[in-house]
UniProtKB/TrEMBL annotation:
GO terms for molecular function: DNA binding. Keywords: DNA-binding, Membrane, Transmembrane, Transmembrane helix. The lineage of its organism: Bacteria, Bacillati, Bacillota, Bacilli, Bacillales. The keyword DNA-binding applies. This is DNA-binding protein. The chain crosses the membrane at residues 6-24, 36-56, 62-83, 95-117. It comes from the Bacteria.
Length: 569
């Protein structure tokens, strides 16, 4: 409430200045002017209090200038009319009130111009770094999540378990790690104003595992009075505004659960650059609201409690991507020369970004970057933004150049099953054994999960579909091993000396390649050798003795780099 009162009072500074000028210049009507001004001021403050209460404008220089202009335009004429002050038309620079108005107009223009120039300062405030490529995907801990659309569909079907279901809708899904497992958390929210008046409290929240396509949602009963859908002083955004009216709130508050299962509303806030509303990425904070008591605790984003995964909202991450890509060489360059400009794609699941988790359980926002030139569907690289610190890492190594972007990967999936109307969603670029690979969820029209798609980012014809992440990954790796163009396919796997007797042989031929697959006696590892590397391998037969150097993986496949066949070479 203090923040609302403060904002209301600050919006009347120009009104007071002009009213004082009217009072000073009209000696014969001062009593009437004073009485009218006080009356208009009281009336105006009441009106503006409700306006500020409803819209919660942040206390920043641009916002206060606009509010002061609006208040002056609305209420100063009431002072002139109520006190019957004659209006004298003079050249603006010869009138004191004209000089004040001119000064305010210049200030508004100046703030507008500075806001454009501040784009470069906002870009400079981003903590950023560049790396050649991401680490290879870990097969034992693949951070592949179920698309939020699919998870939301399941939770919607489970809403009947909520007491007084008719009062509620499902709130925003938030990815989070709970007890070492990645899950989606979604609060139950009021469906309307009247439901809020009747219910007063929501019933709790849902959780559903984000890495198991067969997982079912679980409802956790936990009464919450302060929520996003509550009204008046029980609204989370209004609670945060009351404590931090000078901070801009980024997106809606999201729910996160602590180690004891207690839900909290987490709201990202940031201090804008002086004289503008542009974000200062060095001044990101997070307000954590107790949904039972309404208490607010505020932290620097990196120092939030450990249970908070997303100190930085997806909305702010999207802004950070935009500024990083467009304003690398300033605002004018983003319009004309466009040197080094990169445009973030909008294929993400939340505000054009996609939350993912690494092996350490840290959450990042993924976005691929494309060229500003039209009809170019190749990616320039991709960014990962740390969801707690806001630090941005840009991956633009040689392997990531010339690959298709996320829109191209989704289009490949969409064209695969046109008769079923299955579509691709949540495309994420991973490094699989040295190959940039798009991993896409395939959903039916009802949002139900159907398949995973692994698409080689450098070859639109190289796509593998499967029912589970691990099954599809193994099939994809096996197909890569058979591709003679995949010279880097075994990156990160050491060479091993191997010898044995051939047990089974299979020759695979296509228009572009020929490879030989075989088993050794007493083993189940599938060895693959390209005839371009070992031409005599085409003559392999059962019983042959071989000596070779191979890269053997844990998934039961191996790529042969060198091979000698006894009696043949």
């Amino acid at each position: 409430m203090i923040g609302i009162v403060m904002t209301t009072v600050l919006s009347f500074l120009l009104f007071l200045a002009l009213s004082i000028i009217v009072y000073v210049k009209n000696r014969m009507r001062r009593k009437k002017i004073m009485k009218t001004t006080v009356g208009v001021l009281v009336f105006g403050i009441i009106v503006m209090f409700f306006i500020v209460y409803a819209f919660m404008p942040t206390i920043t220089v641009p916002n206060m200038l606009i509010l002061n202009v609006i208040v002056a335009v609305l209420f100063v004429p009431l002072v002139y009319g109520g006190a019957k002050v004659p209006v004298q038309y003079q050249t603006m620079h010869r009138s004191l009130s004209g000089i004040v108005i001119l000064g305010v107009a210049v200030a508004v223009i100046g703030v507008f111009i500075y806001s454009i120039l501040a784009l470069q300062d906002s870009y400079d405030s981003i903590s950023k770094s560049e790396e050649e490529e991401a680490r290879p995907l870990n097969e034992e801990n693949t951070p592949i999540s179920v698309a939020p659309e699919s998870a939301r569909n399941k939770v919607q079907k489970a809403m009947s378990v909520v007491p007084n279901t008719q009062f509620y809708d499902l709130g925003k899904l938030q990815a989070q790690q709970i007890d070492g497992e990645i899950a989606y958390v979604a609060p139950v929210e009021f469906s309307s104003f009247w439901r809020y008046l009747r219910g007063k409290e929501t019933e709790g929240y849902f959780t559903i595992t984000a890495t198991n396509i067969n997982a079912q949602p679980e409802f956790v009963q936990s009464k919450m009075r302060y929520t996003n859908s509550s009204f008046f002083n029980h609204n989370v955004q209004r609670v945060v505004y009351g404590k931090h009216p000078d901070y801009i709130q980024s997106g809606d508050a999201q729910i996160e659960v602590d180690d004891e299962g207690k839900p909290w509303y987490v709201q990202t806030i940031y201090k804008p650059l002086l004289f503008s509303n542009r974000p200062d990425m060095n001044n990101i904070r997070v307000a954590i609201v107790d949904p039972v008591s309404g208490g607010v605790e505020t932290y620097d984003s990196a120092n939030a409690p450990d249970f908070v995964e997303g100190s930085v909202s997806s909305e702010l991450a999207a802004i950070e991507n935009e500024y990083f890509g467009k304003y690398v060489n300033g605002w004018l360059n983003s319009l004309f020369g466009k040197k080094d400009v990169k445009i973030p794609n909008e294929s993400g699941t939340e505000s054009s970004v996609t939350p993912i988790f690494n092996e350490a359980g840290e959450m990042f926002y993924f976005t691929d970057m494309a060229s500003p030139k039209e009809n170019i569907d190749s990616a320039l690289g991709y960014t990962l933004i740390n969801a707690r610190t806001g630090a941005l890492t840009y991956y633009n190594g040689q392997q990531n150049q010339g690959i298709m972007d996320s829109k191209g990967a989704v289009q490949i999936v969409n064209k695969q099953y046109p008769e079923k109307n299955w579509t691709g969603t949540m495309p994420v670029l991973y490094n699989v054994d040295g190959h940039p690979t798009w991993i896409v969820n395939v959903l039916d029209p009802n949002g139900l999960f159907k398949q995973y798609a692994y698409i080689k980012a450098a070859d639109s014809d190289f796509a593998v579909f499967g029912d589970t992440a691990k099954q599809t990954l193994n099939a994809y790796r096996l197909q890569i091993a058979q591709d003679p163009s995949s010279v880097e396919g075994s990156q990160g796997v050491d060479l091993t000396e191997k010898s044995g007797t051939i047990n089974r042989v299979l020759v695979t031929s296509t228009d572009s390649r020929q490879s030989v697959q075989f088993l050794l006696e007493g083993e189940t590892t599938i060895y693959t050798v390209n005839t371009s590397k070992a031409p005599l391998s085409i003559f392999l037969k059962e019983g042959d003795q071989v000596d070779m150097q191979a890269r053997i993986r844990d998934n039961g496949t191996a790529t042969v780099e060198e091979m000698k066949i006894q009696g043949v070479n």
